[in-house]
């Protein structure tokens, strides 16, 4: 038999680093298998990518498309992390303006496949006209995408039977097996985009595995009537790629962590885009204080409109560290003094925590899938969700402190700590994930 064809695959993520980085990791994995990659983004985002390993550099071409000028969008804003949430809709308008440049690129380079994100509702007909196969890569688990229903009715036509906010707090009627997957936020503005991509793609690729959610993966394929392939969890490959030992930031952080007891520190981080209101920030800070546990808090504020409570830093000095710029998260999660992760439940962060075997304290903030993810991993007993008031979604310093102490030190929390360590075996098994990636790449070779 002849050797399978070497492919040219283009990847085109949405302009958020929570999307760009998983797409970039997938690109490297495909390149490792000998295929040529065109990784498409904007100039500033391309500059901010991690360095490509030297052995893969000849196979990965970084393609810059310039965003058009859009009213209300700052000139240098090319990713969601450059903006407040109120300005992100203007980034989507600019992103839609990339249709022309992308069409020119696809016409001249003729890739075998383009792997796209949720936002490019206009890409399926373009790919079809050019006879380029199209894969939708969901950086979220199948449970999140299943929540939206079928692409043709609920997403594109707006025929979702759920009309009241409370309808979104119960399990959707199309999920035929017991599940706690529900949400507390009706603000789904991107369903038409993702529905159009799901309807027009040739295959759905999901950052997941059957061992984590076989039923949801099967359901997702059934809802959309096409192959649904788990491609693995894309666990971190190499700590050294994120930060060198000599890096001043890491050395300073490590010096503080080295002084703490083994497994005693709560690492607190809510990503670069989660926006806490002043009351939320107050309750979180006072909860960290009330817990009496050591903590390392990465506080990335979008603007200066929110401030820590008066005297907070003085009162927690020595026990708590507040850090306001970039950190090497993987290295912190892997440090022996860190025993738990207080997170907004972003999927990438949860994967990194369980890769390190850390139990979770979960506080979903403002993006719809975070609530679903918190419920899924709460159901798997690897962490707890901070209790909120059902009527207004608020939480208190007491619920923050209670959740932290349960996961970190109380006897009842042993189950969560043990289950997180057990799940590490799944998340950190490179050979296991490689098998999923091999299967996905074989599908691309055989089905384009």
UniProtKB/TrEMBL annotation:
Q: Does the keyword Glycosyltransferase apply?
A: yes
Give GO MF terms, alphabetically.
UDP-glucosyltransferase activity
Q: Which organism is it from?
A: Manihot esculenta
Record's protein name:
Glycosyltransferase
For this chain, the family text in UniProt reads: Belongs to the UDP-glycosyltransferase family.
Record keywords:
Glycosyltransferase, Transferase
The residues forming the signal peptide are none
Does the UniProt entry include the keyword Transferase? yes
């Amino acid at each position: 038999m002849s050797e399978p064809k070497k492919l040219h695959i283009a990847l085109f993520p949405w302009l958020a680093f929570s999307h760009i980085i998983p797409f970039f990791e997938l690109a490297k994995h495909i390149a490792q298998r000998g295929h040529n990659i065109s990784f498409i983004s904007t100039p500033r985002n391309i500059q901010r990518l991690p360095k490509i390993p030297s052995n893969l550099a000849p196979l990965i071409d970084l393609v810059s498309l310039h965003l058009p000028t859009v009213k209300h969008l700052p000139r240098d804003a090319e990713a969601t992390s450059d903006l407040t949430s109120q300005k992100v809709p203007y980034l989507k308008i600019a992103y839609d303006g990339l249709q022309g440049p992308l069409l020119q690129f696809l016409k001249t380079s003729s890739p075998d496949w383009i792997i796209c994100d949720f936002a490019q509702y206009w890409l399926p007909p373009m790919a079809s006209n050019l006879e380029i196969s199209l894969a939708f890569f969901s950086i979220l688990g199948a449970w999140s995408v299943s929540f939206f229903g079928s692409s043709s009715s609920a997403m594109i036509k707006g025929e979702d039977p759920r009309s009241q906010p409370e309808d979104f707090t119960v399990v959707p009627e199309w999920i035929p097996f017991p599940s706690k997957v529900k949400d507390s936020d009706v603000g789904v503005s991107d369903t038409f985009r993702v529905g159009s991509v799901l309807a027009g793609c040739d295959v759905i690729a999901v950052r997941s595995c059957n061992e984590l959610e076989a039923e949801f993966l099967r359901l997702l394929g059934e809802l959309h009537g096409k192959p649904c392939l788990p491609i693995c969890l894309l666990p971190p490959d190499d700590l050294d790629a994120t930060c060198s030992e000599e890096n001043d930031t890491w050395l300073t952080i490590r010096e503080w962590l080295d002084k703490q007891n083994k497994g005693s520190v709560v690492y607190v981080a809510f990503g670069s885009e989660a926006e806490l209101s002043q009351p939320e920030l107050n309750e979180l800070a006072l909860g960290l204080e009330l817990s009496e546990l050591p903590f390392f808090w990465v506080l990335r504020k979008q603007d200066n409109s929110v401030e820590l409570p008066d005297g907070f830093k003085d009162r927690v000095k020595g026990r708590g560290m507040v850090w306001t710029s970039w950190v090497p998260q993987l290295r912190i999660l892997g440090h022996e003094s860190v025993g738990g992760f207080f997170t907004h439940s972003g999927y990438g962060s949860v994967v990194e925590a369980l890769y390190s075997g850390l139990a979770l304290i979960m506080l979903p903030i403002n993006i719809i899938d975070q609530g679903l993810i918190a419920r899924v991993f709460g159901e798997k007993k690897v962490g707890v969700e901070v209790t909120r008031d059902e009527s207004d979604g608020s939480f208190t310093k007491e619920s923050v402190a209670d959740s932290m102490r349960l996961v970190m030190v109380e006897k009842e929390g042993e189950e969560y700590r043990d289950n997180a360590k057990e799940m590490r075996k799944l998340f950190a098994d490179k050979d296991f994930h490689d098998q999923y990636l091999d299967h996905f790449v074989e599908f691309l070779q055989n089905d384009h």
